[in-house]
Amino acid sequence: MTTAIRVGALRAPAARASGLHREGRAAYLFLAPSLLFFCIFLILPFLFAIALAFSDWGGFDLGTIEWAGFANFSEVLSLDGAFVRPILVNTLMFAFGSVLLATVGSVLVAHCIEQLHFQGFWRVLYFLPVVATVVAIGNVWKMMYQPAGLINGVLNKLGVNSIGFLSDASYALPSVTVVHAWASIGGAVLILTAGLKAIPLMYYEAAAVDGASPGRMFWQITLPLLRPSLLFVLITQFIGGLQSFALIIVMTGDGGPVNATNVAAFEMYQQAFKFGAWGTASAMAMVLFVVIFAITLLQLWIARRRGEETS
Amino acid sequence: MRRRFPWFSYLVVVIGGVAMVMPFLDMVMSSFKGAGEYGVIPYEFLPESFSLDNYRDAFSQLELGRLFRNSVIVTVSVTISVLVTSSMAGYALAKLRFRGRAVIFRFILATMMLPPFLLLIPVFLIMLNWPLAGGNDLLGRGGDGGLTTSLLALILPFTVSGFGIFLMRQFMVSLPDEMLEAARIDGANQWQTWRLIVLPQTKPVAITLGLITFIGMWNEYIWTLLISSSEPSLQTLPVGIQLLQSFLDPDRTMPIVMAGLVVSTLPVLVVFLLFQKYYVRGVVLSGLK
């Protein structure tokens, strides 16, 4: 017995080492396609993006690229330009607005669906826009927002004058924001539902015994215990809102009327692919990236702090 | 827990539900509106004639066959590639012991933090200057468009997904080690173990990932718009349909756009409704990371 163990103990390291060596080689072979991809389509472009932000370059000949220092950033962040105001302000309002609407809406809907029959059916209903292309969503809403569209049709029947949802500069951004919120409610409902299901039923039973009203239970039990999923939804949707611009291309074409719906990622796209100003566009991308990165770090920090609280 | 009839909840969910479905119904109704019925005040929800003219026009004005072919080629290639690469990388990260495993896993989590818009410009320039493609020399110079003139341009930047690797890895961690051990004792090498033992077990998560990738690619817009703006033969369904719209006569073209959208949305909708259980699970999983 003892000898067997000792022999095993002596032999094991060598055998394990060669096994591990082979396993390591296999592992890297399995990872090779993905790592190669990340090098070409992630790391290289990321470094390239940083370099471009500090350079002055038009056209496509790499030989003509020139170092520009912080010139692009001072141009982009200058208060005389359009980037900080209205574009960056628009971006924040678009993201804030759609997160606010989508979160309030999805908490309400997710909570209410829990009380009903056919829960799966209702959730799929709210999830439908996620399946549709942004071209469909954008055009349908654009159509509904027209003077002769569904929404103004209803308003007119109620005796309200038509509103130029997309043509009036003061309505355009809120109108687009509503559509973005509408499209993202379904995903939030699903994540919040998972959070709701994780709340132990006994809390509600105890509260019911104490005679708490449904409204009180919602505010005192559901909402506090939903905080982790709620925070996740808030932050991911906010990050999503900050970088989204497909809807704006489809609905307003050029970020109009007069920059009213222009957002940072779209301005970057225009600067790069309409005007060929790679440097300016990349500096814009960097500014937006830093904003998003800071929010992501905040999310990680909050998640970690919460982890320490519970452990 | 006994409750009274939840009338408040019904009210909220039904009103919200109407708001979710109404745009889609308006899309379908408008696609059937005949000449002179669209863009008229007062607005009418139901079409008078239920005409199929818009569908006929959409089919004749769009090269629907080509758009559909491009959409299918791009979507299917990306879906297969993501499934294969994710399950390979996921297996290595979940079940193989090697130096650097923790670092690589963290790196893959970090890749998900890079927003796509940041990579738009550099990836475009990289595709344009791809060595030995589209007449480029070894240093990627001199050619005409590099890789941006072929369907590969629409496929390559999406072939691997950090999220996919993460999803697969999380699923595979829970597979019992004894099963893999048994395969090894029977003489299977790592490749055979992955192919014959692990892959068949991952079916549920593969359906989830496949579905998310499929729907995402079918609807992809920004990158395809960019690439196809100089190479119209690369248009996919969303891009082609969007270009149907004429700024000169929106009241005539919008119903045709709607008809095209109904046709292009239907396949995804059917696939989604058939497999929605898997899709929903993927969304929830992404929320639990």
TrEMBL record, chain A:
<dbReference type="InterPro" id="IPR051393">
    <property type="entry name" value="ABC_transporter_permease"/>
</dbReference>
<keyword id="KW-0812">Transmembrane</keyword>
<feature type="transmembrane region" description="Helical">
    <location>
        <begin position="87"/>
        <end position="109"/>
    </location>
</feature>
<protein>
    <submittedName>
        <fullName>Sugar ABC transporter permease</fullName>
    </submittedName>
</protein>
<feature type="transmembrane region" description="Helical">
    <location>
        <begin position="225"/>
        <end position="251"/>
    </location>
</feature>
<comment type="similarity">
    <text>Belongs to the binding-protein-dependent transport system permease family.</text>
</comment>
<keyword id="KW-1003">Cell membrane</keyword>
<keyword id="KW-0472">Membrane</keyword>
<feature type="transmembrane region" description="Helical">
    <location>
        <begin position="181"/>
        <end position="204"/>
    </location>
</feature>
<dbReference type="GO" id="GO:0055085">
    <property type="term" value="P:transmembrane transport"/>
</dbReference>
<keyword id="KW-0813">Transport</keyword>
<dbReference type="InterPro" id="IPR035906">
    <property type="entry name" value="MetI-like_sf"/>
</dbReference>
<feature type="transmembrane region" description="Helical">
    <location>
        <begin position="26"/>
        <end position="54"/>
    </location>
</feature>
<keyword id="KW-1133">Transmembrane helix</keyword>
<feature type="transmembrane region" description="Helical">
    <location>
        <begin position="275"/>
        <end position="302"/>
    </location>
</feature>
<dbReference type="Pfam" id="PF00528">
    <property type="entry name" value="BPD_transp_1"/>
</dbReference>
<feature type="domain" description="ABC transmembrane type-1">
    <location>
        <begin position="88"/>
        <end position="299"/>
    </location>
</feature>
<dbReference type="InterPro" id="IPR000515">
    <property type="entry name" value="MetI-like"/>
</dbReference>
<feature type="transmembrane region" description="Helical">
    <location>
        <begin position="121"/>
        <end position="141"/>
    </location>
</feature>
<dbReference type="GO" id="GO:0005886">
    <property type="term" value="C:plasma membrane"/>
</dbReference>
TrEMBL record, chain B:
<dbReference type="GO" id="GO:0005886">
    <property type="term" value="C:plasma membrane"/>
</dbReference>
<feature type="transmembrane region" description="Helical">
    <location>
        <begin position="205"/>
        <end position="227"/>
    </location>
</feature>
<feature type="transmembrane region" description="Helical">
    <location>
        <begin position="72"/>
        <end position="94"/>
    </location>
</feature>
<feature type="transmembrane region" description="Helical">
    <location>
        <begin position="147"/>
        <end position="168"/>
    </location>
</feature>
<dbReference type="GO" id="GO:0055085">
    <property type="term" value="P:transmembrane transport"/>
</dbReference>
<feature type="transmembrane region" description="Helical">
    <location>
        <begin position="256"/>
        <end position="275"/>
    </location>
</feature>
<keyword id="KW-0472">Membrane</keyword>
<keyword id="KW-0813">Transport</keyword>
<feature type="transmembrane region" description="Helical">
    <location>
        <begin position="103"/>
        <end position="127"/>
    </location>
</feature>
<keyword id="KW-1133">Transmembrane helix</keyword>
<keyword id="KW-1003">Cell membrane</keyword>
<keyword id="KW-0812">Transmembrane</keyword>
<feature type="domain" description="ABC transmembrane type-1">
    <location>
        <begin position="68"/>
        <end position="275"/>
    </location>
</feature>
<comment type="similarity">
    <text>Belongs to the binding-protein-dependent transport system permease family.</text>
</comment>
<dbReference type="InterPro" id="IPR000515">
    <property type="entry name" value="MetI-like"/>
</dbReference>
<feature type="transmembrane region" description="Helical">
    <location>
        <begin position="7"/>
        <end position="25"/>
    </location>
</feature>
<dbReference type="Pfam" id="PF00528">
    <property type="entry name" value="BPD_transp_1"/>
</dbReference>
<dbReference type="InterPro" id="IPR035906">
    <property type="entry name" value="MetI-like_sf"/>
</dbReference>
<protein>
    <submittedName>
        <fullName>Carbohydrate ABC transporter permease</fullName>
    </submittedName>
</protein>
